[in-house]
Amino acid sequence: MRWHPHGYGGRRRDPEQVKREGWQEQGVLAVSADDDRLTWPERELVRQLGEKLYGPRSSDREARHG
Fold this sequence. Notes:
The chain is mostly helical. It has helices at 15-26, 40-54, 58-65. It has one domain. It is built from three helices and no strands. The longest helix has 15 residues, at 40-54. The chain is elongated and about 50 Å long. The N and C termini lie far apart (54 Å). The relative contact order is 0.08.
C-alpha cells in the first residue's frame, strides 16, 4: 500500500490534456512548430511567432551558422 500526501501521486495527466486545459481555462497556447496536424503555413506562423517573442531556436541558429 502506498501513501501520498494530499495533492501528490495519483494519475498523471496526458500532455495533450494539459495543453487543451491551458488553452480553454487560461488562454495559453502551447503548440509545437513541428506538429503534423498543422499545415505548412500554420507551422511557419508558429515559428515566426516564437522567434518574435523568444528569439530563434538553438537548432535554427546552428543550421544557419553551420
